[in-house]
Amino acid sequence: MTSGWGFPDFDDHEGVHLFTDPASGLRAVIAIHSTKLGPAAGGVRFWHYADSDGAITDALRLSRGMSFKNAMAGLPMGGGKGVVLAEKPGDSISHAQLEAFGRVVESLGGRYVTAEDVGMSEASMKTIATMTKHVSGLPVAAGSAGGDPGPYTAMGVYLGVKAAAKRGLGADVMKDVHVAIQGVGSVGGGLARLLAKDGARLTLADVNADRAKALAEELGVETVAADAILGIKADIVSPNALGAILTPESIAALQTTVVAGGANNQLATKAEGAALQARGILYAPDYVINAGGIINVGLEYLGQGDQAEVNARIARIPDRLIEVWDESDRTGAPAADVADSIARRLIGRG
What we know:
Blueprint: H1 2-5, E1 15-21, E2 26-34, E3 40-41, E4 44-47, H2 52-72, E5 78-85, H3 95-107, E6 112-113, H4 122-128, H5 150-169, E7 178-182, H6 186-197, E8 201-205, H7 209-219, E9 222-223, E10 236-239, H8 248-253, E11 258-259, H9 271-278, E12 282-283, H10 286-289, H11 292-302, H12 307-314, H13 317-331, H14 335-346
Parallel strand pairs: 3-5, 3-6, 4-5, 7-8, 7-10, 8-9, 10-11, 11-12
Antiparallel strand pairs: 1-2, 2-5
């Protein structure tokens, strides 16, 4: 079935929806991978793609990742993802396009729940929410679950990086552990600030060089060019930008013991998980380590618990990583494959 549709990343998705709204200029994709555990939850990103096939592929990969992420996080939610296509790099999404996207989410009748992702903000979610109730990540009162998922994702990645440092390096504390961080937006920047407090040695990079420089000056750390960060010698490489950056070429160039970061879909293909293992590099599967944000907005949408409950669930992320690494050690399977197998069992596709 996968090859028949011509998209290698089609994974028996329940639905792939293509939308246009000529009045606003909206072009959007919503991919629903699974609703086995509940409504398909996953953010919407606004991004420029070389062609529409690239946007569909991104939605397919990201929605599958959300199925696995929500299952591994113990949330009663399935996996979906929205993509709104930008005309050109650097565009901003318009108010009319946000309203139109809210209408298309509403048209799916609650099978898909949207939230904030790349190119979107809390304000974007507020506008979408004028057209549909199937949205999360809205401003909330202090102490409540919800709001900007970025800081919660960053906290989960931070805890996962510390667990990976202990597992891969034998490091009980992060002081003087060298972490190379690719991408210093909401998640990567939050991670950098948390690690800096621990005395970690940091090297930062971002496609927005001014953003990386500003954060480096704030923290008193170094920067390198965005295209060099994956190849520098470091204890831990932490990808926190866009996905598909772990390729045969980039893995061959890695000079690290651990890869642990918040970017979605870091592996370009399934084979890259085995390539990391063959090099003796400990890998923290991305959808396990970066689940903090969806835990926050998922509990907000479900109305289950408060910020204390969110933090308690995020604190379990290291335990899930250890479960994956332990099974990898027992079976000899790459950590990425182990995580996929566990997640597939949880959504009834084992």
